[in-house]
Amino acid sequence: MSSARKAVTLLSGGIDSTTAMAIARSEGFEIYSLSFRYGQRHAVELESSKKVAVSLGAKEHLLINLDLGKIGGSALTDDISVPKCRTEAEMGVGIPVTYVPARNTVFLSLALAWAETLKAADIFIGVNALDYSGYPDCRPEFIEAFEATANLAIKAAVEGEMKIAIRTPLIHMTKAQIIKTGIDLGVDYRLTHSCYDPTPDGSACGQCDSCLLRKKGFQEAGVPDPTKYTA
Fold first, then answer.
1. What are phi and psi of 163, to 5 degrees?
2. Considering the chain, what percentage of its residues have pLDDT values greater than 90?
3. Cα separation of 173 and 127, whole Å?
């Protein structure tokens, strides 16, 4: 029986979640990766998450189906156009329409349930407050509040069996720093997907905020971008 500490890692299949998972592995955790099919228009990312989970040696990769499209309110789940060709200044103002209402709260809650079942005290999430500061559920104060809630919410914590830690190793990194960290840890970024509005064959649009940030990150990291963009 393995004596390694267990960690639940939220895995979208993008750069950030993949790098966070690689960091968890480098710290000696046995990885249980968790992904969601939540009605996102870029569901091609789930194929990336499967490949990443295998590549990084996840003990188990769990895919949960949710239909956040029934709630709507986001360009990722509703009939709302994904913003294209925005400048960095435009990205830095307000909360973008690609924000999915309460997504990280929902995802972390399900990760918490699985962590309690697995007796895994650590939950890794690749949130970042620098390159995408517009999302309220990526802020350090949200993570701190959720961690406090988690330790009040589950039987294992209340009875003193475990204390949940929400691990956010990327939260103060730039995209370039994240990519460099991943390269040092052996991440194969060819397996990842970032685009919010991919073509039917899965190619990245090259113009949405996520694509633009990905391009910028690889350029600033001095690392060739393996992504196939249509623009």
1. -125, 120
2. 93
3. 10
Residue written as token pair 């209340």: 158
In contact, 6 and 29? CB cutoff 8 Å = yes
**Other Cβ atoms within 10 Å of 84 Cβ, number:** 15
Superfamily designation of domain 6-221: HUPs (3.40.50.620)
pTM over 0.90: yes
Give per-residue pLDDT as tens, 166-210: 999 999 999 999 999 999 999 999 999 999 999 999 999 999 999
Helices (H), 56-139: 88-91, 103-118
DSSP letter string, 76-100:
TTSS-PPPBS--HHHHTSS--TTPP
Q: Is there a contact between 102 and 109 (Cβ–Cβ < 8 Å)?
A: no
Which helix or strand (DSSP H or E) is residue 20 part of?
helix 15-26
